[in-house]
Amino acid sequence: MKKGRVFSGARPTGRQHLGNYLGAIRNYVALQQDYDCVYCVVDLHALTTLRETHELRSNTYEMVLDWLAAGMDPSASIIFVQSQVPQVTELHTILSMVTPMGWLMRLPTFKEKVRQQPDNVNYGLLGYPVLMASDIALYKADTVPVGEDQLPHLEFAREVVRRFNAQFGPILIEPQAKLSEVPRVLGLDGVNKMSKSLNNHIELAASPEEIERRVMTMVTDPARRYRTDVGNPDICNVQTLHRLFSGSPERIEEIAHQCRHASIGCVAHKREFARDLANALAPFRERRAELERDPDKVWDILSDGARRAREIATKTIAEVREAVGLP
Ligand code: ATP
Ligand code: MG
Fold this sequence. Notes:
The protein is mainly alpha-helical.
């Protein structure tokens, strides 16, 4: 007997990065044991920001390769593409009728997008959280593994479901967010959340050379300007990430000590981190390369996933239509 149903999704805006892995994918994999899991490539959500829409197909393929190589298992979980189960757009329309505009306009995530793309503040961007609530509600998920950036959306989803149920009866389920142990990974800039669209990320599938190239651009303790300055490892993102990918906690403590006494430089530390990270990700790269030999496999998994997802979606939509009174 499973403990409940999990739903989560990611935008096909590029390959998966360390933030996606630590914040979400690690949980996706772990939850497969005890929960009934539904994992979605949210291509409609990607349309809210993506101009190069012809990239959706290759991005989807690359992302699902990452997921499979990280241990997501299509025989245990449903893995599918959002737009291939169009019932979600119907639920989106219905839920939008119980969503006050004010709730959407005051969400910090919306305000941030307006800042990031002032020339493309589209209606879909405002409705993003309604579509996300629809995804979760359509599959009747009770548990949603996400990174910290998604918490306002989860809270919003709970409120919308509550409002729908109050008006039409207890049809939908109020979901709970599930954070990982590392819910917010900072990007190479050391300030913003690591994000595909900010291009401040390190891809899980990056080659050792690419990893080194990216790591060398990382911002460390900003107060440490010269090699002879002492540093504060507690606020250094290289230190934070290195800790998560090093096989040796003793070495991490040693580096922290050396940083505090200026006996190791940031450049040397970055080289060492890059090497450890490339080693830690080597098994992942190997599994990914193996999967890449059979490109059809990804598309077969996704079409089987869409079929299984549609079975759940059709039932929920029928209940929702009846509750609302649509003829
Ligand atoms: P985009 O920039 O296109 O929005 P993204 O890098 O933010 O891409 P998403 O596809 O939006 O990635 O997010 C997928 C999952 O990964 C979500 O659950 C999200 O909370 C989580 N996640 C994304 N970035 C981070 C991060 N830096 N730290 C922790 N979790 C993250
Ligand atoms: Mg995002």
